[in-house]
Amino acid sequence: MKKITSYSWSILFVTILLGLWEISARLYDKSFLFPSPSAILIRLWELKTELFIHHLPPTALTILIGLSISIMLGSTLAIAMYSKKPIEQAFYPILIASQTIPVIALAPIFVLWFGYSIWSKVAVTVLITFFPITVSVFDGLRSSDRNLRELMLTMGASAKDIFYKLDLPSALPSFFSGLKVAVTLSVIGAAIGEWLGAQAGLGYFSRRMMTQFDSAAVFAPIVLLSAVGIIFFLLVVVLEKHFLQWRNHQ
């Protein structure tokens, strides 16, 4: 009942915002600069074939590949840093420093290296999602219960047993928290990569429509990008509930 009430408030708040936006856009009456939500939805419907068939698949593929690479590399580096102190001392400062570099500044370099292929967009997506996954897994591994560790050691557990039966399960909640952040950032990364250099994709289509001063068509793929981000986020939530069933019963 509480969840239903909270969602009702969210729906009400979004409805009020959209209503104010619609009224403001109609009063301003300059759709080429400030389109209304209804005009955006109409334009989205008009462009549905081009967006869903030609531009949504490349963006979704970029997000999936980028996230997969970030999960594999980020988890591997986090485990390595947790296992070996010298690796943590060598890579953790570099990991932090990498986040001080604006992604928008590196995206053109990736286009220069990889051209307009999907890999330039994947590189941007990996760069923007690698950090939250790595840090969340690393912090999750370090959060394992010391008392349980000592108990397992006294019972003759090996380092391998402790890692698989204590450290990894302890890191799962943090991993999924980081993955939720990474999923939303992956949409931004894919859009940035497509905005700066691509031949297809929702970000590319939005930039193309901007040159034609079709503001409703600029917003249409943005709405679709937002929907993609929400869908991926909900998928992570479903996976989290499946793999962390033990936490739901606590």
Describe this structure in words.
- The chain folds into 2 domains: 1-30; 36-248, MetI-like fold (Orthogonal Bundle).
- The protein has helices spanning 2-28, 37-46, 48-83, 85-98, 103-114, 118-142, 146-154, 159-196, 202-211, 215-243, 245-248.
- The protein has 11 helices and no strands.
- The two termini are 20 Å apart.
- It is elongated, with a radius of gyration of 22 Å.
- The model has no long low-confidence stretch (mean pLDDT 85).
- InterPro entries: MetI-like, MetI-like_sf.
- It comes from Sporosarcina ureae.
- It is found in: Cell membrane.
Shape: elongated
- Summarize model confidence as the mean pLDDT: 85
CATH fold field value of the largest domain: MetI-like fold
Instruction: Give the class-level CATH name of the largest domain.
Output: Mainly Alpha
Fraction of residues in helix:
over 70%
Low-confidence parts: none
Based on secondary structure, the structural category is mainly alpha
Query: How many beta-strand elements?
Result: 0
Rg calculated over all Cα atoms: 22 Å
Family: Belongs to the binding-protein-dependent transport system permease family.
Membrane topology: Multi-pass membrane protein
Pfam families: BPD_transp_1 (PF00528)
Main location: membrane
